[in-house]
TrEMBL record:
Residues of the signal peptide: none
Catalytic activity: N(6),N(6),N(6)-trimethyl-L-lysine + 2-oxoglutarate + O2 = (3S)-3-hydroxy-N(6),N(6),N(6)-trimethyl-L-lysine + succinate + CO2
Pathway annotation from the record: Amine and polyamine biosynthesis; carnitine biosynthesis
Organism: Aphanomyces stellatus
Name of encoding gene: Aste57867_24538
Descriptive protein name: trimethyllysine dioxygenase
Superkingdom of origin: Eukaryota
Amino acid sequence: MLGRLLRPSRGPWTARTSLRSLHSNTSPSASVIRLQALKPIDDADALQVTWTDGFTAKFHRAWLRDNCSCPACKHPTTLQRQVLTAAIPVHPTGPAQLHDDNQSMSVQWDAPVEGTDCVHSIYSAAWLRDHAYSDPSVHGSYNKHYRQQHLPALSLWGKELDFPTTTFASVMDEQGSGFRDAMHQLKQFGVLLIRGTPSSMDETERFARRIGFVLETIYGGMWTTRPTNPDQSYNDTASTNLALGPHTDCTYLYEPPGLQIFNCVLQANTDGEGSSRFVDGFHVVEWLRAHAPETYLFFVETPLHQYCIDDDVSLHTMKPLIQLDARGNVEAVRFNDYDRAPLTHLSFDQVGAFYKHHKVLWQAIHEGEVVYKMSVGDMIVVDNQRVFHGRHAFQGERALIGCYIGRSEYDSRLRMLDLL
């Protein structure tokens, strides 16, 4: 369903190419790499595979059986596994051999397993090399087929940020590379300024849907900070004219939105009033890791209670401020003092530690803050799981329209554009 509804990529990389490399054991590049030898490892129920360049890897027979990509084992349309993994013997048996001029190997299984009548699996030399999980250099790095954002590939920033900027016409041009270029900038920096945007909710939504689905939250789908009817109103400090310190949105959701879109349709006249504030949360985390390791560990290990209570709504989470991935790199931050509950879930000593470490955190946030006053026609897209946003107080009228997009939809679009 997702692949049919999201707009297809206009870039050189397509889902068809990606899915083939991920799900097919007969890689298009198989002709450029060859196997030299196979050796059974009986005590591990595995095969040792050697390539002509001397590279060696080991594969469990159960893993090979589980990852057969023939049409009987992996559905040719959905690319979903058909074989029942639980039915695969712990010690599957059957002879293996090289063939196709050593460009692939095959296994003739002694018996089929539930879910498929397949007894013959083929694996290309290139596909096996690409999935050589026994090699530390492969196992210890980011699997390229996982294709998630990871810290080493991102551009961290502080006050020196030169806002990545494009135009609405460019990102909406389906024939050019403007949209892909803009998404690359957004991925790198976590924030993107789009000039010349129409002051229209419909046009804002049209842009959002180039990335993915508009995320429905307690605020609805599309929203405005200056509602004209009761259906558009909501109980949140964002709808006031008060200052807002740097924060991320919806920290009380199990999965906060991936992106937030702000389209400025009315701006306060007084200089400086209503200016937007942005901080690279990943930069803050890395500064803490290097210069304040105790504070870093506190916010990695300590869950904080975030909540939102309104008419017919009671949302709560208990998550740490800094979320790490399996490799120890920061993959998300959730920070919002406005929505933080009293710290009654913490011990006496932990509460004292919280306020000590919060001072250090706030200093790092303040020192990395970028201030920008949006003009009518400016639309800013923010990675809500990376970049803190806020605003200065203002008098008079100021209005933004916008929406959220889910993290999964955003990452999907990046993959479809070959940016992950």
